[in-house]
Specification:
The protein is about 35% helix and about 15% strand. It is an alpha+beta fold. The protein has a single domain (about 15-125, about 170-220), classed as endopeptidase fold (from Nostoc punctiforme) (Alpha-Beta Complex), CATH 3.90.1720. It has a seven-stranded antiparallel β-sheet with strand order 6-4-3-2-1-5-7. Strand 3 and strand 4 (about 75-80) form a beta hairpin. Helix 2 packs across helix 4. The longest helix has 27 residues, at about 125-150. The mean pLDDT is about 85.
Length: about 220
């Protein structure tokens, strides 16, 4: 089934790859941010980061008609799904009732103040994104140190890991893209996407959905 024929239900999770640079300053800036997220979130020994942005389908439909809710500078907003065609992976829940999925979509709109037909809601949580960077740098440094110890001490096995210090701050009023998805899944759907919704990343969500084949089905691209 190709993307044009696929139905994207409300509540589906959209994980996007790095955005291509456009001609405008905002497109250039978001491409730079996407690259920085990919670099910062990839620990030594891990495969290349695939997802640097996440969104939630809030209006079901085809690739041409479905709409997503995403936290994207300068504010949380409603966007057409087709803007990410060819550069996204979409997962639908296999365990959450469709009525609950619709409720998640409604709740996400309410949290972002996007009710009543509004297309733009609360301001993007740039502060939360800045708190993400030192956590990644600390994690990288610790991983390199642990890698060196494993190299010097026979029998030790290196495995990448991450620490959450600054992003553990429960700044629930600050929205970044991954929180748009993870919050409603945890609070309404009862599914925790690896970490608490306030500190999960787009790549965490993509990794979880891709591995949890009994909970999520990849519907785009078709497999």
């Amino acid at each position: 089934m190709n993307g044009d024929a696929t139905y994207f239900p409300a509540g589906a999770i959209v994980c996007t790859t790095q955005r291509k640079r456009g001609r405008g300053f905002v497109e250039w800036l978001m491409a730079l941010v996407s690259w920085l997220i990919a670099w910062a979130s990839r620990m030594p020994g891990e495969p290349k980061t695939r997802a640097t942005h996440a969104a939630l389908v809030v209006k079901g439909g085809t690739l041409e008609t479905a709409e997503i809710l995403e936290a994207l500078w300068p504010c949380v907003q409603i966007s057409p799904l087709k803007r990410y065609a060819g550069h996204m992976t979409v997962y639908r829940s296999l365990r959450i009732n469709p009525l609950i999925c619709n409720l998640m979509a409604t709740r996400a709109r309410e949290q972002a103040r996007l009710t009543g037909g509004r297309k733009r809601g609360i301001v993007y949580g740039l502060l939360k994104l800045l708190l993400f960077l030192p956590d990644c740098l600390i994690s990288k440094a610790l991983c390199y140190a642990w890698m060196m110890i494993c190299f010097l001490v026979p029998g030790l096995v290196y495995r990448p890991f991450e620490v959450r210090i600054f992003t553990r701050l429960n700044l629930i009023w600050i929205f970044v893209c991954s929180q748009v998805v993870a919050r409603v899944y945890q609070e309404i759907g009862g599914v925790t996407l690896i970490y608490h919704w306030s500190r999960v990343t787009p790549d965490d969500i993509d990794d979880y959905c891709g591995a949890a084949i009994e909970e999520f089905e990849q519907i785009y691209p078709s497999v």
